[in-house]
Design brief:
It contains three helices and ten strands. The strands form two sheets. The chain has a six-stranded mixed beta sheet with strand order 5-4-3-6-7-8, sandwiched between helices. Helix 3 links the parallel strand 6 and strand 7. It is globular, with a radius of gyration of 17 Å.
């Protein structure tokens, strides 16, 4: 099913129209997040003071839904960073930007990073290496909503994966194109923009 959103898409000062093909429905996304929450809950049973770091902006809805599905003995400490490598493009620029990378002292804690997508792997590798160097975590794991292994440039695997996808440009559920379409309640491929 292709959804004609009849919205203007702004690209290089020229407006166009977007058509988005639904890849995963809202129900499918929520069901998979519930399953991931159970997996994470089992792995974090008995873990002292776990820290969850959401990578904004793309992980916003995935993070909030996932947090409600995780059950731990100790309360979760939730932190946020903002990293980017796409900008307004449909491919990673290869350069990781760190507009907001301010974290409290979480030395030797159990850390779970929640990210929207692993594409090239550069952003994930950069951030995990940063956390290892700065905080020497007791454990460090990553949960991603989408994994696009065909685009991998650096070796990187997430511990928890919502969906593996082909080389599609996906929006919705927090993922965007030029800061647009994050609010869509499903994951969809941009087929015309």
């Amino acid at each position: 099913m292709v959804v004609d959103l009849s919205r203007k898409v702004y690209k290089d000062q020229k407006a166009g129209t977007a058509k988005i093909r639904e890849v995963y429905s809202n129900a499918a996304v929520k069901a998979r997040i519930a399953e991931m929450g159970k997996e994470i809950s089992a792995d974090y049973k008995g873990v002292e003071r776990p820290v969850v770091i959401g990578v904004m902006k793309g992980a916003i809805f995935f993070l909030s839904d996932l947090l409600r599905e995780i059950e731990t003995d100790d309360p979760l400490q939730v932190e946020f960073v903002r990293l980017a490598s796409y900008g307004a493009a449909t491919e990673s620029s290869g350069v990781v930007q760190t507009p907001y990378l301010d974290l409290p002292n979480i030395v030797h804690r159990h850390i779970l990073v929640v990210e929207d997508i692993i594409d090239s792997g550069r952003t994930a590798k950069f951030f995990l290496d940063y956390l290892k160097g700065q905080f020497a975590p007791a454990s460090l794991k990553m949960a991603v909503l989408l994994d696009k292994p065909s685009r991998r440039v650096v070796p990187m695997e997430a511990d928890y994966v919502g969906f593996k996808i082909d080389d599609l440009f996906v929006v919705g559920y927090g993922l965007d194109y030029a800061e647009q379409f994050r609010e869509l309640p499903f994951l969809g491929e941009m087929v015309e923009f």
